[in-house]
Write a structure and sequence with these properties.
With 89 residues, this protein is mostly helical. The protein folds into 2 domains: 2-58; 65-89. The chain has 3 helices and 2 strands. A two-stranded antiparallel sheet has the order 1-2. A hairpin with a 5-residue loop joins strand 1 (2-4) and strand 2. The radius of gyration is 36 Å and the shape is rod-shaped. The protein starts with a strand and ends with a helix.
Length: 89
Amino acid sequence: MAVQLDDKTEVTVPLKTLISVIGAIVVASWYVFSTQTKISELEHTVMLLDERFVGYTKQPSRSTTEIELLKKDFEYIRKEVNDLKTKLK
């Protein structure tokens, strides 16, 4: 395969080299596409895990300690008892 650039210059590329270059381009493009797909899947997985973690931490027993929950319950019961005492008087 010979190509003339001007009257005196001729460039030739062996068919074996041309096939090797095209093959390398195909393999490189497949590798890039495959890597981008894997990165996209991993980003999606991380996003789902982040959402699950946020939901996990927003549960009452996860965001506060058990002592804080007991304190809140105690204050609520104390208020209810005081309300009942005032009603009975």
